[in-house]
Write a structure and sequence with these properties.
This is (apollo) hypothetical protein. The protein has 168 residues and is mainly α. It has a domain of 67 residues. It is 71% helix and 0% strand. The protein has 6 helices and no strands. Helix 1 packs antiparallel against helix 4. About 7% of the residues have low confidence.
């Protein structure tokens, strides 16, 4: 491996940049970057949401294993650019969508159950109202019958009073 122009050879005493990482570390970093190319190129991913996704955590894990305690600032800065994965390729997205659908289905199911219970309650209320009206009609008929009986008794009473007056 040849030294680059900005790296100082051992026999020079100027203040040129030193070697920050080995070729093995560079190769490993390039491998990680190749795996995450779709993530970086995707315009629809933002870091804030994708930090929670599976790929982001996998890349974080690889980065932590690559740099134990001696972190290379340049490579860390490059790594920060990496976001998450596209939503369609992520199993967490699929799980999240499935749970959203399940949540919506449960909500719809509970709404249907609520409407069924409300319908049953309205039906029961309707039956009770009809029963009350029937009882009310029966009560009014009985009352009218009693009023007619009272009027007939009063009529008979007046007839008897008239007969008594005629006899006297």
């Amino acid at each position: 491996m040849e030294p680059k122009g900005n790296i100082a050879p051992e026999h020079q005493n100027n203040r040129a940049r030193g070697v920050n990482c080995t070729q093995e570390e560079k190769d490993l970093f390039l491998e990680i970057m190749r795996e995450s190319a779709p993530i970086i190129e995707s315009k629809f991913t933002d870091t804030n949401t994708n930090k929670m996704e599976r790929i982001w955590s996998g890349l974080e894990y690889k980065r932590e294993n690559l740099y134990d305690g001696d972190a290379v600032p340049q490579l860390q800065g490059e790594f920060i650019v990496i976001g998450g994965t596209e939503e369609q390729n992520n199993t967490l997205y699929d799980i999240d969508e499935a749970s959203k659908r399940a949540g919506k289905e449960a909500l719809l199911r509970s709404n249907i159950e609520f409407k069924e219970r409300a319908s049953a309650m309205l039906e029961e209320e309707h039956k009770l109202k009809i029963k009350f009206q029937e009882q009310e009609i029966a009560h009014q008929q009985l009352r009218h019958k009693l009023e007619i009986d009272i009027l007939l008794l009063e009529k008979d009473k007046k007839k008897l009073e008239l007969e008594l007056l005629k006899k006297n």
